[in-house]
Design brief:
With 191 residues, the chain is of the alpha+beta class. The chain has helices spanning 4-10, 24-34, 54-73, 80-90, 115-132, 144-147, 150-155, and strands at residues 46-51, 102-109, 136-139, 162-171. The protein contains seven helices and four strands, in the order ααβααβαβααβ. Bound molecules: flavin mononucleotide.
Length: 191
């Protein structure tokens, strides 16, 4: 276990993974840690869909790519990052989940008023817990448009009554990415 501040500052979004499975016990550990996140009214309105099947992850990636490409086409002239991501998605064989061995979709109970915030807290807790045991992670927003499709979400295994909030990938990092630039945040002090 590392010092919490070191964990917070050293966690990076990992986009290259070793071809190595994560033991189920470690995934259970991460889910257990996620459950310690705060939640509105302590409703703990989360559920975890754990997908370890490589073919299913790749198939979902292809569906997500098809729905993201038209959106990015409309953004490519105003955003360089959108243009770069579009080029990546159009590349033969590209995988929005970067070949990670595990995809965990954090689902929120649709009846809980703060489910989206609660699940985002659980997501960050899980990613920090992963960092503490040498497991890399990344939130894959590129999957979110597709996961808004309720029928598809049920087909991939989400229980009734839940919406998707956070698609997270996990795996053992290949290499150590540089930290992307951090800006000084705007802070307003009122004393
Ligand atoms: C809501 C959200 C959506 C994201 N979606 C993607 C994504 O689809 N693909 C990707 O490679 N990274 C994605 N990221 C990761 C960010 O690009 C990354 O966190 C950011 O560049 C900062 O890098 P760092 O996490 O290594 O500090 C996402 C992060 C968040 C919080």
């Amino acid at each position: 276990m590392k010092d919490i501040i070191e964990i917070i500052k050293s966690r990076r979004c990992i986009r290259e993974y070793l071809d190595k499975e994560i033991p189920d016990e470690d995934i259970k550990f991460l889910i257990d840690c996620a459950g310690y996140a705060p939640s509105g009214l302590n409703m703990q309105p989360w559920a975890f869909l754990v997908i370890q099947n490589k073919d299913k992850i790749l198939k979902l990636s292809e569906t997500c790519k098809k729905s993201m490409i038209p959106i990015l086409e409309g953004m490519k002239n105003t955003s360089k990052t959108a243009g770069d991501f579009l080029a990546f998605l159009k590349k033969e064989g590209s995988d929005i989940f970067y070949g990670a061995p595990v995809l965990v979709i954090i689902l929120g109970n649709r009846n809980a008023p703060t489910a989206v915030y609660d699940c985002a807290m659980a997501a960050q807790t899980m990613m920090l817990a992963a960092q503490s045991i040498g497991i890399g992670s990344c939130w894959i927003g590129a999957a979110q448009r597709t996961l808004m499709d309720e029928k598809l979400l049920r087909e991939i295994g989400a229980p009734q009554g839940y919406i998707h909030v956070a698609p997270l990938i996990f795996g053992y990092p290949k290499g150590k990415p540089e930290i992307p630039e951090r800006r000084e945040p705007e802070v307003v002090w009122i004393k």
